[in-house]
Design brief:
Blueprint (H helix, E strand, L loop, with lengths): L5 H4 L2 H24 L14 E2 L6 H6 L6 E4 L3 E5 L3 E3 L4 E14 L8 E3 L13 E2 L1 E9 L8 E4 L1 E2 L2 E3 L2 E3 L6 E4 L6 E3 L2 E3 L4 E6 L2 E6 L2 E3 L3 E6 L2 E6 L2 E3 L6 E4 L5 E3 L2 E3 L4 E6 L2 E2 L2 E3 L2 E3 L3 E5 L2 E2 L2 E3 L2 E3 L3 E6 L4 E6 L2 E3 L20 E4 L2 E6 L2 E3 L6 E4 L4 E6 L1 E4 L16 E4 L14
Parallel strand pairs: 1-2, 2-5, 3-5, 4-6, 5-8, 6-9, 7-10, 8-11, 8-12, 9-13, 11-14, 12-15, 13-16, 14-17, 15-18, 16-19, 17-20, 18-21, 19-22, 20-23, 21-24, 22-25, 23-27, 24-28, 25-29, 26-30, 27-31, 28-32, 29-33, 31-34, 32-35, 33-36, 34-37, 35-38, 36-39, 37-40, 38-41, 41-42
Length: 424
């Protein structure tokens, strides 16, 4: 005969107390972390957030940051300053409430809005330099008589994220020897009288997912190393897009650079070992200008409706690879072109007294005046092969004969400017 379960042998009067006890024990098990008594003075190691709204000035809030660093939270509102704010601690996060936090520099004596630096400034000893400063989520504006927007000097691991930096009388964001790992991302840098982002003597730099518009120049990187610039949008600059000087081991890829009055990308002053790849470079005064560059690669870029020199390799440059690029006008098929009659310029590749080049796998279509234009003394030791030329004239036949590989040439297709298609 089978024995009955234990519960059938327990008096019914005991069941309710036993069930209540079991549920109580389970509740204590799961709720005990929530019932733990707080530490008498708070969580060990925690620092109090600094709420700038509780201070008489923004500078007073920054001065309240302890030596070990902390977080300063800027409230929503418009705050006018007439002298630079100064942040001089390591391990600090200065964060606002997005565009709702607006700091306006009303100074008219060329002073910057925000200085990030050690109290010793440029004279700071190497061991005393500031580390790990993050600036995020607020709007910073100036006027045509103010100075730079933000100046950071000798800051390691600086992180600038989600800022709007506009209308300053000089550079928008100026990083002066922020040597180790500066990062600039997700920011809008516009309408500054000089360079939007000026990188001086920086190293291992990330510039990603930013938008630049109508600065004098968008980005300048001088005396640097290992710039990684990707996913940025540059539009309508009064002079140049990207200027890279005396910088090596860098990549500029996946960017859109449009309508700079000057040149989209310039490499100058002993640049070497850099790659410009997979960018859309459209409707600029000039495209890529290699003024003094060696050991560099230009690949997989779309260079369309460029007014002059979609790519220029000057006499100070050599040992360059140019491959897989598309040089084009605004042809859209069926004999139509998109641009208006007074806006049909589409330049090609200019070789000016240079040497040691590989030019392969490129497409040149409806380029004027020539797909490949040779200037100055003849360029030497140039391999020109496996390129496609459509509706163009070209000087490539003037290159050394042994260096010319397969070239496919096609006659022009009659084109028109369809009135029914808009011309952006």
């Amino acid at each position: 005969m089978l024995s009955l379960p234990f519960c059938t042998r327990v008096p019914r009067s005991w069941l309710a107390p036993l069930i209540t006890l079991g549920l109580g024990l389970c509740g204590l098990l799961f709720l005990s972390p929530l019932l733990a008594k707080p530490v008498r003075n708070g969580l060990p190691g925690a620092r109090t957030e600094i709420d700038a709204s509780r201070y008489p000035t923004l500078q007073a809030a920054l001065d309240a940051v302890p030596a070990e660093g902390g977080l300063v939270r800027l409230p929503p509102g418009r705050f006018e300053i007439t002298k630079p704010l100064v942040l001089s601690r390591s391990d600090v996060t200065l964060v606002g409430a997005g565009a709702a936090t607006h700091i306006h520099n009303a100074n008219i004596e060329g002073q910057p809005a925000l200085l990030i630096r050690h109290p010793d400034g440029e004279a700071v000893k190497a061991d005393d330099r500031l580390w790990r400063v993050r600036i995020a989520d607020f709007r910073l504006t100036g006027n045509e008589k103010s100075g730079h927007g933000i100046v950071a000097t000798w800051i390691n691991e600086l992180f600038v994220q989600g800022l709007t930096i506009s209308y300053h009388g000089a550079d928008g964001l100026r990083l002066d020897h922020c040597y180790e790992d500066p990062r600039i991302s997700d920011s809008l840098i516009t309408y500054n009288k000089a360079t939007g982002l000026n990188l001086l003597g920086c190293h291992d730099i990330v510039v990603a997912a930013n938008q630049f518009e109508e600065n004098l120049d968008a980005i300048s990187c001088t005396d640097g190393y290992n710039l990684c610039m990707t996913g940025n949008c540059l539009d309508d600059h009064l002079r140049h897009g990207v200027i890279i000087e005396n910088t090596y081991g860098s990549v500029v890829s996946g960017n859109m650079i449009e309508e700079c009055n000057g040149t989209a990308v310039i490499l100058d002053r002993d640049c070497y070992g850099n790659t410009l790849s997979a960018n859309v470079i459209a409707h600029n005064g000039g495209g890529i200008d290699l003024r003094d560059a060696h050991g560099c690669t230009i690949s997989a870029n779309t260079l369309t409706i460029m007014k002059t020199n979609a790519v220029r390799v000057g006499p100070g440059s050599g040992r360059i690879t140019i491959t897989g690029n598309n040089f084009s006008n605004s042809y859209i098929g069926e004999g139509g072109i998109k641009r208006r009659k007074n806006d049909e310029a589409a330049a090609g590749l200019t070789l000016e007294s240079t040497r040691d080049l590989t030019i392969s796998g490129n497409l040149f279509s409806s380029i004027r005046p020539k797909a490949v234009e040779i200037k100055g003394t003849p360029s030497r030791h140039v391999l020109f092969g496996d390129n496609v030329l459509v509706d163009v004239e070209s000087d490539h036949s003037r290159l050394d004969k042994p260096s010319i590989g397969t070239v496919l040439e096609s006659s022009p297709t009659p084109t028109s400017n369809p009135k029914t298609k808009s011309s952006p």
